[in-house]
Every structure is written in structure tokens, then in C-alpha cells.
């Protein structure tokens, strides 16, 4: 009998097909970079507001994780710079950049959890965006990065 192969199956001796890029995965990393940049800018602006005007955020009564407003400001400013830098390093297609992006988004969500008494609605929005960034970066695989950016396998 004659052996039939479909167009999708690879024949012996032929090179393997290149990885198929899902638009959702590629769009997901672009989404993650844009959202991380916005989150980084938010952290930096919130930090500068606390550093410049000590009365911008009111100290909370009976809050277990209450730090000085100046300390929150510096923490927000530094984390904003780190998140913003991580956003731009994601476009290089390196595996470590995705891992750093996920780690930075986790740290940002945790930081906003502790920042909730100062701005509860905005903190909840940033936490939700951080979760979307983590999901977007986790679904973007190594093969897609190789195909799009010619990153080494």
C-alpha cells in the first residue's frame, strides 16, 4: 500500500516545521510590556508624590504594615524604575527577561496589597493588571520567542 502523508505531518528526512506563533501569545507579550510600563510609571509617580508632599498620603490608624510615608515613597519610586526597566527588557525575547517580568509583576502585586489602605480601588486595579501580566508572560513560550526575535534555542 502506498503511504499517504498529510501536509501537516513531517516526512522522514525533512526538517521539522518552524513553531507556529499564536497571535494571542505574541499579543500577550506586547500587552504585558505596555501594562508593565504603565504600572512602572504609576509606581514612580505615586512614589514621587509621597516623597515631595508628606501629607499626600495619610497615615492609617491600626494598620499592621504601616510604614512611614517617606519610606513608602522611596519604595514606590524604586520599584517603579525597576518595573519600567523590566518592561523594556522584555522585547529582547530572552527567557530571563520573561522570568524577571513575572517576578517584578508578583512584587508589584504584593506591594500594592500592602498599599491598599492608602488607595484601595487603584491598588485593586493594579493587582488585577499584574495578574494579567503574569498570565501573559507565562503563556508566551520559548519557541515563539525564537521565531519572533531569532533568540537562540
Description:
The protein is an all-alpha fold and 153 residues long. Helices cover 65% and strands 0% of the residues. The protein contains five helices and no strands. It has helices at residues 23-52, 69-89, 95-114, 120-139, 142-149. Helix 1 runs antiparallel to helix 2. The protein is elongated. The two termini are 39 Å apart.
Task: List key phrases describing it.
153 residues; mainly alpha; elongated; disordered N terminus
Helix/strand layout:
Blueprint: H1 23-52, H2 69-89, H3 95-114, H4 120-139, H5 142-149
Helix pairs in contact: 1-2, 1-4, 2-3, 3-4
Summed up:
The chain is mainly alpha-helical. It contains 5 helices and no strands.
Strand content: under 5%
Query: Helix segment count?
Result: 5
- Determine the mean pLDDT: 76
Helix and strand run = HHHHH
Structural class: mainly alpha
